[in-house]
Amino acid sequence: MKIIIIGATSGIGKALAEYYAPLNYTLGISGRRTEKLEEIKTQFPNTEIHTSFMDVADMESSRKALADLVEEMGGCDILVINAGVGFPKATYEQEIKTLDINARGFMALAHWGYNYFKTQGKGHVVGISSVAAVRSSPYAPEYHATKAFMSSYLEGLRYRSTKWYKDIHVTDIRPGFVKTAITENNKGMFWVATPQKAAIQIAAAIKSKKGVAYITKRYVLVALLFKLLPDWLYTKVM
Questions:
Q1: What is the edge-to-edge ordering of all strands in the sheet holding 49-53?
Q2: Claim: this prediction has a pTM higher than 0.90
Q3: Given the DSSP bridges, would you call strands 123-128 and 26-31 parallel, antiparallel or unpaired?
């Protein structure tokens, strides 16, 4: 089995790479900090690990990097798109960067991956979105909007598979709070998972070929609450 994890230098992506590496997978890992990728490769000398520099904000170069990585590995069965950013009280420039990476950059890679699996006849696209996809926020509307885009795009690909390509699976992973660099300055977090715990549950969702999975599982309750609260109460408790 061959799996590619985009955004594997830290957090959930790194934990996923470390989860799969001992399990006899051929592993492709990408990110901007290649020294971090090499550290993972050194950590698992008995695993076939391929590394690739990738800047998701540069859509054309990231698609080429993905194509080259797949060719180097001799194929791909599972593509995990984990790269993403978020900023507290983002400036306009940071909002644009969030859009470029979380939405446009994600779509460029998901589009390439899905079309590759169409040619191959089977495969699995996995996107790491967020419980933030369910409803927006007064604090980071650009972040919530891009995660909602991710979830909607993945949903559309999943419907496409249902209609025409039943051997291509699509999974939307929606983490709640996970202890990563993005969340380290957040206040008032609850049900915080370690990246390792998140990786275990994500791997289980991938193995089960779930359409949507909340990480950790109890965040499905938060998502339901987000959907049900009226605007006046939602903005009051946020």
A1: 49-53, 26-31, 2-6, 78-81, 123-128, 168-175, 212-215
A2: yes
A3: unpaired
